[in-house]
Write a structure and sequence with these properties.
- The protein is of the alpha+beta class.
- The protein contains two helices and four strands, in the order H-H-E-E-E-E.
- The chain has one domain.
- The chain starts with 5 loop residues before the first helix and ends with a strand.
Length: 69
């Protein structure tokens, strides 16, 4: 049997739980990553618990900040 597609698993969880996991991560002091419709391909939005947001490119050496939002 093939492994399930990760994005399908994530989408199912979001449909079921909304943004509960994201809110829990922020409340625990950890940043979250997400994409908006206008987010350029290959980039993500990183949001910190204090509300700061950055446009980042994720790589093996860590996040590269492209722009502070």
């Amino acid at each position: 049997m093939d492994a399930p597609d990760l994005w399908d698993v994530i989408s199912t969880g979001v449909e079921r739980d909304g943004d509960l996991a994201a809110r829990e991560h922020l409340a625990a002091g950890r940043p979250i990553y997400y994409w908006e419709e206008k987010t350029a391909e290959g980039l993500a939005i990183k949001e910190y618990p204090d509300g700061r947001r950055e446009l980042v490119r994720q790589g093996s050496a860590g996040d590269e900040v492209i722009q502070t939002l």
